[in-house]
Write a structure and sequence with these properties.
With about 400 residues, the protein is mainly alpha-helical. Helix content is about 35%, strand content about 10%. The protein is built from 13 helices and eleven strands. The protein has a three-stranded antiparallel beta sheet with strand order 3-11-4. It has a two-stranded parallel sheet with strand order 1-2. Strand 8 and strand 9 form a beta hairpin. Helix 2 crosses helix 10.
């Protein structure tokens, strides 16, 4: 199924908005391909060691150069956020919950869709988790350090995502390489275009993935895809409840956000002049500027709308995904899911709090097909004790 013909008009509209755009984008594309050739080799050679790691107790000692490295690579393992025994007890609690609630659906079937178990509620409300949430939120910044109305990076808001069981082996049919946070919206939405303005004007090296302006107000869900997050997420991640290492089902990432952003945005304006399986497919001379088609590689129309951007080795050969999708290092406590406070996020968390109190799916997952039948052992508001935890969950703050 091809993209709608109107998407070709979208490409022409973008090009027409920048003087001498074809020349500028072509020069930028060639420069980008040269950088990708060097960086992907480095990533493939380093493997999991390429991912930054730090222990929780040393977070505040990182120097600006280390913070910039994290911003560029877009991922970090923070060890020791939660005591290992406490994290293991949450895993046991989840296993017990599944045993007494075998009727809950899952995808795949054996991986139950859980949102509000007591263990999950306690993990989200843990003070160390919230401290790390604030820390990663502050990796983002506003241009020229200006104050942005309605934004408080020091108040993390909880986004209730599901409990995930990671299995050894490749599961590309379940979770192929993908880029969350929008589909065609990256090119169609004016605010998203502002966020990618440096890339779209031929200055990809000036693009700052942690720049808030444009990104905060970007509309990443114009097509209402099922399970699509309707909030702005600074970082996405998870808390490991068991020991997990490369090849054991752990998370894989492409650890260079400026490069991946620039390549996926610019790829739609260029086509190869040789077959996709050609040994010379990576050479810049075999790519030409072309805005004649409506295709945006990696975006496929489905009956439910446009799927999120899914790069593939054939359509995005310069990313060398088979070599550069990098397993994160061995973890115990792991990454977390982080959100920061914008007016849109605040409104969502209020609706999410209502779902928590009634034991129903969070708003973004209300139509995922799993539902929440009668279950035993869900978390309750009494499990959220600290005032800061109540704020992040959108719950009333209890009197001292």
């Amino acid at each position: 199924m091809s993209c709608p013909e109107r998407f070709a008009d979208l490409k022409r509209e973008i090009v027409a908005s920048t003087p001498d755009c074809e020349r500028r984008l072509t020069e930028s594309w060639n420069d980008l391909l040269q950088e990708l050739d060097e960086r992907t080799t480095e990533i493939a050679d380093e493997g999991p060691n390429y991912i930054p790691q730090v222990h929780f107790q040393y977070l505040d000692t990182l120097v600006p150069e280390q913070l910039d490295d994290i911003r560029q690579k877009g991922s970090i393992i923070i060890h020791g956020v939660v005591d290992e025994d406490e994290a293991a007890s949450w895993k046991t609690s989840l296993e017990d919950f599944i045993k007494v609630n075998p009727h809950i659906k899952g995808f795949p079937e054996q991986d139950k869709q859980l949102y509000w178990t007591r263990a999950q509620v306690q993990a989200r409300a843990h003070p160390n988790v919230l401290k790390v949430s604030t820390w990663v939120n502050n990796l983002y910044r506003a241009k020229n350090g200006k104050k942005m109305e309605g934004v408080d990076l020091d108040v993390p808001l909880v986004y209730a995502d599901l409990f995930c069981i990671r299995h050894p082996g490749v599961q590309l049919d379940v979770c192929p390489p993908h880029v969350d946070g929008g589909s065609i919206e990256r090119w169609r939405d004016n605010n998203f275009r502002r966020y990618f303005a440096d890339i779209l004007s031929g200055n990809w090296r000036q693009h700052d993935p942690c720049e808030l302006e444009g990104r905060l107000d970007a509309h990443a869900f114009l097509y209402g895809r099922p399970g699509q997050a309707t909030v702005f997420r600074t970082f996405q991640g998870w808390l490991a409840l068991s020991e997990i290492a490369p090849t054991q089902g752990t998370l894989k990432v492409f650890p260079d956000v400026p490069l991946s952003n620039a390549y996926t945005v610019l790829r739609s304006f260029f086509r190869p002049t040789v077959p996709l399986d050609s040994k010379d497919i990576l050479h810049p001379k075999n790519w030409v500027f072309d805005i004649s088609t409506p295709d945006f590689p990696g975006i496929q129309p489905r009956e439910s709308g446009l799927v999120c951007l899914q790069p593939t080795p054939d359509l995005h050969p310069h990313l060398r995904l088979q070599d550069t999708m990098t397993s994160v290092p061995k973890v115990k406590p792991g990454d977390l899911i982080f959100w920061h406070c914008t007016p849109r996020n605040t409104a969502y968390v209020k609706r999410q709090a209502e779902a928590f109190l009634t034991g129903t799916n969070p708003p973004d997952f209300a139509s995922d097909g799993t539902g929440l039948p009668y279950v035993v052992g869900l978390g309750v508001d009494a499990d959220v004790v600290q005032p800061i935890s109540q704020i992040t969950m959108g719950l009333p703050v209890a009197d001292a």
